Amino acid sequence: MEPYYSDDETGELVSNAPTYSRPAFEFQMSKLKELVSLYKEKLNDVEKIRTEQPCHPRAMAVEYQSYERAVGILELVTTSNQDLNKVLTVFTYLISEIKIAREYIDCNVVIGLNFYGEGKMQADQMPEGEAELMMGQMMPFFSEVFESLSYVNSLVVNLVTQLHSLYYKKQPKNHDLYGNLFKYVHLNSAFDALGKMLGGLAMIDSVVDDNQNLVNHWDLYKRMMQFAKNDPAKYGITDKLERQLRKCLLFLDKSILSGNCLQACLSHKGYEAAISSNKELQNEFLNYFKVKIDKLTNSIESQYEWQESKIVVDVICLYFLYRKLYPKDFDKKLFKSVWSLIKKAPVVCVTGQVIIYPHELIMKIAPAPKSVAVEPKDPEQYIKAYMQKSDDNLDKSMQSWLSKFSLWSSRMQSFLNSSTSLPENQVQKLQDSRGKLLLQGLLLAYQIQNYIQVNTALHERNGVPFKANFIPLLMQAIELTKAIHSTLERKQEIIALYLGSIIRLIFKDAIKPYDMIRDKLGAKPTGVGLDIISIYKLVNELGSGCLNSIRSDLLKLCNEIVDIKSILKENEKSLVEDGLWKFEILVEYQTNLKNSTDCSFIYWIQQLNTHFLKYIYDEPANVHRLRYLYMALEDSAKQMLLCRHVEDANDIKQNYIKDRENELVEMVIMPLARAIESDLRLHIHSLYITGIEKQNPFQSSNLSWFLDSQPMVFCEKVIDIKRKIEMYLDETFYNMTALNLNDWRTYEEMRSLARQKYKLNLSEVHLPSKHLDQGMDLLDITKKLPNFVNKFKYNLHSQFFIEATEGDEKHVALVSYMHITNSLRTHGLGLINTTINTSYRLLAKKFQIFSQFLYDDHVYSQLVKDRKFFVNNREALNQMYSYDRAENFLREVKKLGVFDKNLTLIDKFRILITQIGNTLGLIRMIKTAGLNLTATRTQFIPNTQNIPNITELAEKFSDGTKSAASSLEDIMESLTKNFTADTDYFKILVTTFQGVLNTNEASHLKLFYMIIPTLTISYVESMLTAKDKLTKKKALDMYFTDDGFAVGLAYVLRILEQESHFDSLHWFDSVETKFAQEEEKLTVIKASEEMQKMQNMSLKKISVFRVEFELLKYCFLGARIFFNNT
Q1: Residue 174 DSSP label
Q2: CB 539 within 8 A of CB 555
Q3: Residues 6 or more apart whose Cβ sits within 8 Å of residue 1002
Q4: Is residue 223 part of a domain?
Q5: Which H or E element spans position 800?
Q6: How far is residue 59 from each of residues 52, 56, 62, 487, 716, measured CA to CA in Å?
Q7: pLDDT tens string 722-774
Q8: pLDDT for 474-489, tens place per residue?
Q9: Distances from the Cα of 419 to the Cαs of 88, 97, 259, 750, 968, in angstroms?
C-alpha cells in the first residue's frame, strides 16, 4: 500500500500499511522527525527577523496583484442560457471598463489638472508668453483627456442602452429576458458603475472650475491663436492645419476647459428617444435610488463607512441622468431624497483642497422645476454648522481613533505567528481574524483621512482659521493614517503570503447561503430555477480560479440575479452582501491601501507644515511624529510627477523636496543645533568664568528627544537630525578653533561634553595647540599676492614667511615650504604655473614704479653728484664709497617730505625692493615645495632613470590589467618628469626683464647701484626699530627678519648687470671701516664716569649696527648666488 501525505499543515508522512518491529528504522525516523521539527521551528523564526530599518529606504517592496493568464470574460461566463451569458458578459465588461476609466480620471486627469501652474511663479510675476508656453505643454495631455472623455461618453451611452434593452417589456418572444427573468432582478451594480462614471466627470469639472490659473491661461492661449488664424504661414502651418487646430481647440473649450464634461455627457445625442417612455427602466432607476440612498444614509458616519461619502456625488450625478432621460416625470419625493444626502455629506472632497458642494451641483444642473420643501433649507448655514460640529468633535473623535488604532495595532502582531502548527479549523479562524484586521485598518485609515481632508478643505474654502488645539490634533490624525500604512507595509511580506487564502475564505463564506437555494430548487428545477442553478454553478466556478476585480464584478451581478423574488432570507442576504463587500475591498487591497492612507492634501495647506514644525520644536517629546509628517509630504511629491505643464515634472518634485528639507533645517535643525551649541558653551564658561550662572536642567527643554529619534526617509533621502547637528557642530568648532587657536581647549571640552550629555559623535578638529599643519593655502596667497608680499617678511635661510604683527595679536601667521607642499598636494602641480604668471605680472608693475622713482630729478641728480664725487676722489677714499656721503643722501631725501608712518622716499623705495625680493622668495619656496612633493611621490619608484615598459609586460593579461598597467605607466612617467624637471624660474625672470630694463630708454637706471648704500642704511635702521618693538606691547609693524630686501637687491643688480659697479664701491668694507674708526675714537678718549656710560652706549649701538650690516651682507651674498648662472 502506498503511503500518503495528510492534509494537515504539519506535513507528516502517514502510512496505512501494517506496522512491523523495526527498531533501527524507527530510531532513524524519530531522529528525522526531530530534525524536521527543529528545522520548521527555525523557519518560523525567520518571520520574526526585522527585514527593514526605519532609517533606510526600502530597496524592494512586495506588491500583491492578482494574476490570471489568458482568461477573458467570455471564458468565465459559461451558463447553459446563451442569452444570460450575453447579459453577464456585456455588463461585466462595461463595469470593468468603467472602473478602469474612473481610475484613470482619479489618478491622472484630476491630479494633472489640479497641479497645473504649480512650481511656477505667480501670475503677476510671470514673464510675458510664459502662460501660453505652459498651456502649449498641456496640449498633448488635453488630447489624451479628450479622447478618454469620448470613450467615457460612449461607455455611458452604451450602458444606458443596454439597460434600456434589458429592462424593456417589448422583447422578442424567444428572447424575452425581461419577462422570464430580469423582471424580478435589480442590477444595482450596473447603476453603481453608471453613477461612478458620471461622478468622475463631475470631479473633472470641479477641478477645472477651482484652478483659476487654468481658466486664465486658456483665455490667453485662445487669444494667441487668433494671430495664427490671421496669418498661418507666419507660424509655419497651412490653412487646413490651422482650421483643424481651431476645431480641436473648440472641442476642448466646450468640454474640458469650460467645466462642462458632465453636461456634455448628459446632453449626448446617443441616448435613444424610446428611453423616455420605458417605464420598466424608470422603475429600476427609482428602485435603485431608494435602496442606495437608504444604504448611504445608514453607512455614512458609521464604523463601517467606506467611501460612501464620495459615492454621494455618483448618486447625484446618476439622478441628473435620470432627469435627462425622463424630463417630464419630476418626482418631488425623489428630489427630496436626493437632497437629503446633503445632511450626511454636505461637502465631498475630490483631490487636494478641491471640493464639491452637492447642493450647488444640484442647483446648477438639475434644480427643482417647482417649489419643493427640502431639508436642509439653507445648505450654506448647514455647512457652517457641520464644520463647527466637526471642529467640536475632533478631540472626541481623536480619542476614539486612538483607542481603535491601539487595539488594532496590538492585534496586528498576530501576523508574526505562524499557522503551520495549528489544525485546519483554527487556521481558518486565524485567517478570518487576519482578514478582519486588514479591513479594520483600511476602514480606520479612510475614515480619519476623509474627516481631516473635509475639515481642512472647509476651513480653507470658507477662510475660517483653525482653533488653537487643531494643529496637534490634525498632526495626530495624519500620524495615525500613516502609522496604519507603515504597519501594513512593514508586514507586507506576510500579508502577500496569506492574502490569497484570506480572500478565498471570505469568498467561500459569502456564497454559503447559495447552497440553501440549491436545496430549495430541488434536483430538477424548471423555468427560472434552471437559470438560478446555472448562476450557482458559475459562482462556484469563479471561486476555483484567481480571485480578481473582474470576477468580483461578475460575482456581484450573479448575486443580484440569484436573489430573484427575494429568495434569500434577510439574514442570508446580509451575510452574502457583507461577504461581497469584504471581498471587493480586499481584492483591490493594494489600491485601497494607497488611496485610504493618501495624505497628499497636506500640500495644499502648506502653512500647516510651518505650524507642525514649530509645534514639534516647542514640544520635543513629539519628535517621533516628524517621520509620519514627512511620509504625508512624500505623497504630494509623488503626485507632482503627473504635472504636464512643464517639460520635466521631476524638476518640480525636486524643488519641492528641497523646499521641505530647507524648511526642516531652518525651523528645527538649525535652531536645535544653535541651542545645543549655546548650552555647551554656557556650561563650559560657567565652570571657568565667575558670574555666569549654571543652567537649571528643570527649566530648560530636553533637547535629547531630537537626538534620540530615528532617522527618517523622505523621497528616498535619509534625513538624520542627529547627524546634521553633528556636522554643524563639527564645522562650527573647527572654524572657531582655526580663527582663534588659543581657544582650542575650550572647544575640546565642549566636544567632550557633547559626547557625554547628548551622545553626539563629533569629529576631531585636528588643530593642536598653537600650530596649524595645513597652513595658508597657496591658492589664497596667489589671489592676494600684492598684499602678501607687503605684509609678510621672508627668511632666506629657513625658507619661511612670517607675518608682521599688529599690536595685540595673539598669534602670528607663518608660511613654510611644507605648507606650500600641502597646498600643491591638494590643488596639483598646475598651481605652480599659475603662481609664476601672477608673480610676473606683479613684478612688471613693481618695476614700473621702480623706474619712475629713479627717473625723478631730485633722486637722479643726487646720484650723478655722488657718482662724480666717488670717481674724482676714488684714490683719496681708498676705493670705498663714503658712509657719510650715503648718510647725507638719506638726510637730503628726508627734506623732500615724510609720508604716513614717518616713511621717506628712500623708505618707500626700500619697501619696493623688499616686495620684489619677497616675490622671488615665494617662487623659490614653490620650487622647493614642488621638488619635495614629487620626491615623496617617487620614493616608491626603484629607478626614476630607467622605468620598465609595464604595458608590454601586461600584454598577456586581461583587458582590465592592461588598462591598469597603462594608467600606472602614465602616472610614473608624469612623476619622474616632474621630479627631474630643471626649470630655472629665476633665470626666466631675469632674462625677461633684462630685455626691457637694459635698453637706452632706461638709461636713468644705470646709476641704481649708487643708491644701494643709502638703501642699506635705511634697511638697517628700520630693522633695528622693528626688533626693538618686539619687547613692547601693542606696537605696530613688529618683525625680526626681512631677507626679501637682500634678495630684491641681488635680483635688480643682476637684471641691470651692475654687480661689478656695486662691487667697485666696496660698500661693506666702507661700513666696517667707518664703525672701526668710530670705535677707536671712543676708546681713545678718556672721560668721566657719566661720559663713560654714554661712550658705552655708543659702542653698543655701533656693535648692533655692525651685526645688522654683517647679517645683511651675508644674506646679500647668499642671494647673489641664486643669479650666478642667469
Answers
A1: G
A2: yes
A3: 851, 996
A4: yes
A5: strand 800-803
A6: 9, 8, 10, 17, 10
A7: 899 999 998 888 888 877 777 778 888 888 888 888 888 888 776 654 444 56
A8: 888 999 999 999 888 8
A9: 39, 39, 55, 55, 62
> Can you tell me the distance from the alpha carbon of 495 to that of 507, in angstroms, rounded to the nearest whole number?
17
For the record, the C-alpha cell of 396 comes out as 472626541
Cα(1006)–Cα(999) distance, rounded to whole angstroms?
A: 10
Q: Which residues lie across from 1036 on neighbouring strands?
A: 806
In a domain, 1050, yes or no: yes
Map grid coordinates 432582478 to a residue: 185
d(CA 889, CA 909): 14
Q: Which amino acid is at 1004?
A: H
Asked if 1113 and 1075 sit in the same domain, the reply is: yes
Torsion of CA 361, 364, 370, 375, to 10 degrees: 30
β-pair partners for 795: 800
Give the separation between CA 1065 and CA 560, rounded to whole angstroms.
126
Could you give the CA distance from residue 932 to residue 818 in angstroms, rounded to a whole number? 8
Matching residue, cell 500518503: 4
What sign does the dihedral 22-24-29-31 (CA atoms) show?
Answer: positive
Looking at the domain assignment, is residue 353 inside a domain? Answer: no
Q: Are 1039 and 1084 within one domain?
A: yes
Please give the C-alpha separations between residue 997 and each of 604, 844, 857, in angstroms, as whole numbers: 74, 11, 19
The string of DSSP letters for 899-923 reads -GGG--HHHHHHHHHHHHHHHHHHH
Give the integer Cα–Cα distance in Å for 359 and 380: 9
Express each pLDDT in 674-727 by its tens digit: 988 988 888 887 777 666 666 655 556 677 888 888 888 888 888 888 899 999
Whether 1073 and 1013 map to the same domain: the answer is: yes
3-class secondary-structure state, position 290: helix
Q: Identify the band that residue 14 occupies on the pLDDT scale cut at 50, 70 and 90.
A: very low
Same domain, 747 and 867: no
**What does the alpha-carbon distance between residue 1103 and residue 771 come to, in Å, rounded to a whole number?**
35
Query: How far is residue 32's CA from residue 13's CA, in Å, rounded to a whole number?
Result: 11
Instruction: Among 722, 757, 792, identify where a domain stops.
Output: 757
Question: Is residue 707 one of the residues assigned to a domain?
Answer: yes
Give residue-wise pLDDT tens across range 520-533.
776 676 677 787 88
Whether residue 911 contacts residue 1037, with contact meaning beta carbons closer than 8 Å, is answered with no
> How, if at all, do strands 805-806 and 814-816 pair?
unpaired
Supply the range of the domain harboring residue 665.
Answer: 600-757
**What is the chain's length?**
1126
Q: How far apart are CA 991 and CA 1055, in angstroms?
A: 7
Q: In whole angstroms, give the CA distance from residue 947 to residue 735.
A: 45
Which residues share a beta bridge with 800?
Answer: 795, 816
Integer Cα distance of 427 and 7 in angstroms: 13
Q: Looking at the structure, do residues 180 and 255 belong to the same domain, yes or no?
A: yes
Domain count of the fold of the chain:
4
104: its cell numbers: 484613470
Question: So what's the pLDDT on residue 1014?
Answer: 93
User: Does 913 share its domain with 801?
Assistant: yes
For residues 101 and 160, state if they share a domain. yes
Co-location of 239 and 136 in the same domain? yes
